[in-house]
Specification:
Helix content is 33%, strand content 36%. The chain is an alpha+beta fold and 196 residues long. Strand 4, helix 6 and strand 5 form a beta-alpha-beta unit.
Length: 196
């Protein structure tokens, strides 16, 4: 978290320069992503999805925004000249130790915006969070490059479990409850980058 919040050293000099470029050239503000800002966040997401050939996680991001309170998600929304331009949404991953960023979306041609929101969100997290999980790259080469440019300290192995559900109905009983049998297989999928 401290590396993402401070961007120290030579390895982050380009990131710091992009953040400085954004801060020096735009009238911006950040607000906690409360329900009152949900429509603005959804408008950012709609613009972001419209500008992409591969909509990727648009459906999941929309559902997360719509169910923020139920899912106990926290975030920040960012404005430039009072126009909504970006949001970050995540949650505590390991109690008072690690935070996970589920969604980070930005629109418009604001050079340094992504670097700014990444740094700003990491800076506002309480110091008890030592690591930030930036999740997987979804097989997107550009996203992979962007995530790797933050020099992650490691990767977490993830697994996906698939269930095949088969149903049988009792012979001759039209209104009987269905019987289910489950079979599961586990597949290893991509790892997630973790930064400090």
């Amino acid at each position: 978290r401290t590396d993402l919040a401070g961007l120290p050293g030579r390895k982050f000099s380009k990131k710091r320069n992009l953040v400085k470029l954004f801060v020096n050239n735009h009238n911006y503000r950040a607000c906690p992503l409360f329900d009152s800002y949900r429509e603005d966040a959804l408008s950012i997401l709609e613009k972001w999805c419209r500008d992409r050939d591969d909509i990727g996680d648009c459906g999941a991001a929309r559902e997360a925004l719509e169910k923020m309170q139920t899912l106990q998600l926290c975030g920040t929304i960012y404005y430039v000249d009072d126009q909504p331009v970006a949001f970050t949404l995540g949650e505590e991953l390991v109690k008072e130790t690690s935070y996970v960023i589920h969604f980070e979306k930005a629109v418009g041609n604001y050079k340094g915006l992504y670097q700014f929101i990444n740094k700003a969100f990491a800076s506002m997290l309480p110091e008890c969070y030592k690591t930030i999980n930036r999740e997987q790259d979804l097989g997107n080469e550009g996203l992979r490059h962007a995530k790797m440019s933050y020099k992650p300290i490691g990767f977490i192995k993830k697994y996906r479990c698939f269930f095949s559900v088969h149903s049988r109905q009792f012979a001759g009983e039209r209104n009987s409850p269905r019987m289910f049998t489950n079979s599961a297989r586990i597949l290893k999928i991509k790892t997630s980058a973790v930064s400090i």
